[in-house]
Specification:
Distance between the termini: 8 Å
Order of helices and strands: EHEHHHEHEHHHEH
Radius of gyration: 16 Å
Number of strands: 5
Helix content: 55-70%
Bound molecules: BIS(adenosine)-5'-tetraphosphate
């Protein structure tokens, strides 16, 4: 199973990815997590990432594609990408990498949640986890960046007949069941 989870900030990609990873037994790659880990270790990448993340901006495509290429070298069989790709050049880069490795995506799941709901979720997370990119101002930027740069990916994957939209409202288990249902159709 080669999967991509798409969705705006706070749509629940990370939450659902944790379940999907367990259910399908496939490696989970979250570019957001990789960046947060680099940040907590204080590496050069981490320092750079922090500046972009705190502003609600995306990191440059070249950096992200470099990270993913390195990761893919160790992935055997399937994978679940969460939060990658986030731009058309990243999607094209992923296609090129897959073509080189002789594979193709099975499905792209887009988790859909209205803006007002994600803002509430992320502000709640800020109160619990204190993530520096979960301030009201940064969330507004992240939403804008999502509509400008990431949402066009839906059309990109729709044209390739890979897109599966899922309602991300409701309990985590309900959303997970919806994802399993659309993937059942995709397999
Ligand atoms: P990410 O780490 O990918 O994160 P995210 O947008 O915060 O969201 P996610 O959808 O995973 O939310 P979650 O499940 O945690 O990116 C962070 C930053 O890294 C980006 O802004 C960017 O700067 C950088 N970055 C990452 N990838 C990049 C790339 N490819 N290119 C360039 N830059 C990149 O859920 C959010 C909250 O909602 C949680 O508190 C959760 O508990 C709650 N929740 C989840 N599901 C729920 C439900 N059904 N009901 C109620 N609450 C729910």
């Amino acid at each position: 199973m080669k999967l991509v989870l798409l969705g705006g900030p706070g749509a629940g990609k990370g939450t659902q990815a944790a379940r999907l990873k367990e259910y399908y037994g496939i490696p989970h790659v979250s570019t957001g997590e990789i960046l947060r880990e680099a940040r907590s270790k204080g590496t050069e990448l981490g320092k750079k990432a922090g500046e972009y993340m705190d502003a609600g901006k995306l990191l440059p495509d070249g950096i992200i594609l470099g990270i993913v290429e390195e990761k893919m070298a160790s992935l055997r069989g399937g994978f679940l990408f969460d939060g990658f790709p986030r731009t058309i050049p990243q999607a094209e880069g992923l296609d090129a990498l897959l073509a080189r490795l002789g594979g193709a995506l099975d499905a792209v799941v887009s988790v859909e949640v209205p803006d007002g709901v994600v803002t509430d979720r992320l502000l709640k997370r800020a109160a619990i986890e204190g993530r520096p990119d979960d301030t009201r101002e940064t969330i507004a930027n992240r939403l804008k960046v999502y509509y400008d740069q990431t949402e066009p990916l839906k059309e990109y994957y729709r044209k390739r007949r890979l897109l599966r939209g899922v309602d991300g409202l409701g309990a985590v288990d309900e959303v997970f069941d919806r994802i399993r249902n659309v993937l059942g159709e995709a397999r």
